[in-house]
Design brief:
This protein is an all-alpha fold. It has 13 helices and no strands.
Length: 367
Amino acid sequence: MASALETLCGQAFGAKQYPVLGIYLQRSWIVLFLTSMFLLPIFIFTTPILEVLGQEESIAKVAGKISIWSIGIVFAFIVSFTCQMYLQAQSKNMIIAYLAAFSIGIHILLSWLLTVKFKFGITGAMTSTILAYWIPNLGQLLFVTCGGCPETWKGFSFLAFKDLWPVVKLSLSSGAMLCLELWYNTVLILLTGNMKNAEVSIDALSICLNINGWGMMISLGFCAAASVRVSNELGRGSAKAAKFAIVTIVITSFVIGFALFLFFFFFRERLAYIFTANQDVAAAVRDLSPLLAVSMLLNSIQPVLSGVAIGAGWWSIVAYVNIGCYYIIGIPVGVVLGRIIHLQVKVRCCVSTYEAWVLQNSQGIGP
């Protein structure tokens, strides 16, 4: 939902309506805080929810424990995402990068201390994660409110409580678009948990999703760049410059995606040993690697097109596309191939690869 701020701030900055950006930021804080309060029961009752969905009791209990700790992360996201969107719209990216680098250093140190040195397990890992989120948040807030954005931040204002409904509508549209993508991976894990040898399948799929996430981080960077450039240029009224930015970013992202495709295609299960010493899991990752590599290639384009949609404010259109690709096509096909034809976990990557291809074509640009 915070991505709505990307559209609003980007276009307002392009139109040189600078004071409006600070108001949009505060309105987004209000909307996201209230939304997070409504979501709290899901985090509190994660264990019984997962048990009702058929997950193993041991998995559900661990997930429930992590979910309780995640409440602090959810509220950290409110500040983190909104400030990032606000700063990116003004091309103030270096402060975000500096704080992120500092956060990674703190996270690595605390993770080692709390999980390896003192062996606090999940408690230590989640404590480290929460601190790693909140420390840069404080830095971003201080930068925004203490003179880092003099043109766009004019202080807290009661105007933030006015005209909230348009922000709510755009936030819901943006949330629907992105959540439909993110929740799909969660559905994959849930379906995999009901397969034979579920523990190995979940481990293998999780490793593949993590590796895919490495490549996605690069693509998401281009997604942010596309969103900012498109929204800024549209705010200025320059559609031609927006089109040029789209073509440039898509080509650049695809070239990097192709390099990653070759890398992951040839290294296969050797990468799995970064995450696990279990040979069965590594073998499962090896079987999934070709599909993973193709998925990474296609995913180098799709997030960029999502960034274009964000910049242009086409949230609702892409939300419908995601519903069709992920839920009307993807999940039913995955269930049939995985449960009836018994392709097991391999079908999850296969369906994800196909959907990435469908998504990028339905959003307007083919490979």
